[in-house]
Specification:
By secondary structure, this protein is mainly β. Helices cover 15% and strands 41% of the residues.
């Protein structure tokens, strides 16, 4: 499998929807996570990322314009000890709460399905990063309707042990724009992770479609210590 360019992947897709990138920095020092959201409707575009403890949450930029918060207001990132959870919905809380009760990432997601937003049935994409004692591994999951049929839920988990320097995986909700929106297909894409946290954040933000992009989160976690740096970019200022 060839390593893909995140810049090319994003510039070539006007509407990947929401996306998660997890991997390892070029110098091998950092566990890397990025999460972005896009929107086509006024409700979806009326959002910003704000810090919330060690994680982040979405928030209405203009509360007066917010119509239905059910699928757009949530905590995309939460931290449980040495685990960082990144998702595109309120399943972040499900994973956090059930893993705190000693269940696994997969067991927690068994209690959830794709989003109930017919006719798109948006996939739930989730990631978990485990950094402890100088070691790092991660996993990604997608819960999606069976070829657009909500009668069946397809569940996939991809685990990555000892990730290589300068490599990551990229999963997003939609293959591209459409009506209904076509769900992501296949294994998370192998992508190159390049540069510092600021360089990666700039690369991602500048590559997202200008009309549809809403917010971006990037975090670099030092594998040796667990210390981290975060960057948040919002279109709404």
């Amino acid at each position: 499998m060839d390593r893909l360019s995140l810049e090319k992947e994003l510039k070539g897709n006007s509407y990947p929807g929401r996306g998660i990138v997890i991997g390892k920095s070029q110098d091998g020092k950092y566990a890397v996570a990025a999460y972005f959201i896009m929107g086509r409707s006024v409700n979806s575009r009326n959002r910003i990322f704000v810090e919330d403890g060690e994680g982040i949450r979405t928030q209405a930029f203009d509360p007066a314009k917010m119509k239905d918060p059910s699928l757009v207001i949530y905590a995309p990132v939460r931290v449980l000890g040495n685990k960082t959870i990144v998702t595109n919905g309120d399943q972040t809380d499900t994973i956090y709460e059930l893993m705190d009760r000693q269940q696994t990432f997969e067991q927690a997601l068994r209690t959830r399905e794709f989003e109930p937003d017919a006719p798109n049935y948006t996939p739930r994409i989730s990631g978990i990063m485990h950094v402890e004692d100088g070691r790092y591994n991660y996993a990604l999951s997608i819960l999606k309707s069976s070829n657009g049929d909500p009668a069946s839920c397809s569940r996939y988990t991809f685990a990555y042990e000892a990730p290589l320097d300068g490599e990551g995986r990229f999963i997003h909700t939609y293959m591209g724009d459409g009506n209904p929106l076509p769900s992501f297909e296949g294994e998370p894409k192998l992508v190159a992770i390049e540069g510092s946290i600021d360089e990666l954040a700039a690369q991602l933000w500048e590559s997202l479609n200008e009309e549809n992009k809403v917010s971006l989160f990037v975090r670099y976690i030092e594998i040796a210590t667990g210390d981290y740096e975060t960057r948040i970019l919002n279109k709404n200022q």
